[in-house]
Structures are given as C-alpha cells and as structure tokens.
Amino acid sequence: MAGDFEDYLTDAKLNINTTGRNDDFSDTHFYPYEATGYTVLKRLADTDLILASDCLLDYGSGKGRVPIYLNYITGCSSIGVEMMNEFYMDSLLNLSYYGKTFKDKASNITFIQYPAQKYDVPAKVNRIFFFNPFSVEIFKSVLKRIMESYYDEPRHIFLFFYYPQDEYVAHLAGIDEIFFYDEIDCRDNFPENDDRNKVLIYEIL
C-alpha cells in the first residue's frame, strides 16, 4: 500500500524504525502497538497547532514515531511515555539514530518508561496526543492527571485523538473545562471509508 511505502521512506529519512504492528503485550487495558501513519501526522502538523515553542506529550509512545516526527516537522519539544520495556528500548535506539543526523532537534526529545495513569504531567506540556493506547478506564485516570497539571498551572492545552474511541469522546463531553475544537478528516489517506480515520481536537481552557 502507498501509505505503508511512505511510512518506510519517512522512517529511512529520519534514520529510525517504527513500522509494523505488535500485539505481544496487549490485553483488555493496553492495546497493540501500531504507529500512527505519517500522512496523518503530516496533516496534524499542517494545522499549525503545534509550534516550536510547544511541548508535546505522546501517551503510549511505542517506538517513538510521534515524538520524533513532530519534533522534526514542527521543532516542538516532545515527551513519549511508554510502559512496555521492549518498545521503550526501541524508542531510545530510534532517538539515538535520529540524533546522529538531527542532533540539535533530538536534544529536545525525552522518552520515559512509566505507567501512563501514574505519570505527573509536567507544567510545560501543552499539546497531548493519543492513538488509542489504553482502555477508557486508564484514560480516565490519565485525564485526571492532565487536569491536575492544568489546575496547578493553568494554560491553553490542545488534546489530539487519532482514530478516537466512542468511550473517550463520551467521557470528554462530561468535563466542563474541555471543549471540542475541530477535527481533521483523514479518510482519503486510506482505502476503506472508515469514519474513525480522523483526528479529533479538543482544548482545555
């Protein structure tokens, strides 16, 4: 498929390896590893909602594609939080190879091995990305941590949800400080006409 070929080409350009799918560690709460397509990430970057002055947090960062690519395209600093050791080690390896070509950019990327629901969101984080990394039960705990960070240090935060779960959307609707902002339709990037091939954008004000 064209999208798969483009993913391989972009990985090669960045000197990383993030392609493929892995469900060895998935269960009812943690979902299989599958990287977000570069065509989707490019479309997100083109919104100009992520700037060099921003700090992006990617939950379930896997092998590091989202933090590395959005750092490369936008210049933002980025943090990847990943619980599984195998993926975390892959992300560190990818970061080291990315840094051989893009040393200055790579210095603004951090990968952390830690359970998402226990991670205290740094005050500098103002952009957050999800690609269905875990169940809605864990998402509720994660969102509570995000809101605690927001209350401690009020700031304008954008939340990006690729291929959103209905349960996520329903939970977001019940939080007064979170508002729907926009959506990015990505269906034309894929052969199947799947309504979930989109990025929903929310903001915390």
List its salient traits.
9 strands; Rossmann fold; alpha/beta; 7-stranded mixed sheet; 205 residues; 7 helices; two-stranded antiparallel ribbon; globular
Describe the structure.
Helix 2 runs parallel beside helix 3 (65-74). The radius of gyration is 16 Å and the shape is globular. The chain is of the alpha/beta class. The relative contact order is 0.15. It has helices spanning 2-14, 38-45, 65-74, 85-101, 103-106, 136-152, 166-172; strands spanning 21-22, 33-34, 55-59, 77-82, 109-113, 127-130, 157-162, 178-185, 198-204. The chain has a 7-stranded mixed β-sheet. The longest helix has 17 residues, at 85-101. The chain has a single domain (48-196), classed as Vaccinia Virus protein VP39 (Rossmann fold).
What are the SSEs and their pairings?
Layout: H1 2-14, E1 21-22, E2 33-34, H2 38-45, E3 55-59, H3 65-74, E4 77-82, H4 85-101, H5 103-106, E5 109-113, E6 127-130, H6 136-152, E7 157-162, H7 166-172, E8 178-185, E9 198-204
Helix pairs in contact: 2-3
Q: Please trace the helix and strand order, writing H or E for each element.
A: HEEHEHEHHEEHEHEE
**Classification by helices and strands:** alpha/beta
Identify the overall geometry: globular
Taken as a percent bin, the fraction of beta residues is 15-25%
The oligomeric state is single chain
Which stretches are low in confidence, meaning pLDDT under 50 for 5 or more residues running? none
Largest sheet: 7 strands, mixed
Structure annotation, total helices: 7
Sheet with most strands: strand arrangement: 5-4-3-6-7-9-8
The CATH first-level class comes to: Alpha Beta
Radius of gyration: 16 Å
> What is the name of the CATH topology?
Rossmann fold
Provide the number of structural domains.
1
Under the CATH scheme, which architecture would be assigned? 3-Layer(aba) Sandwich
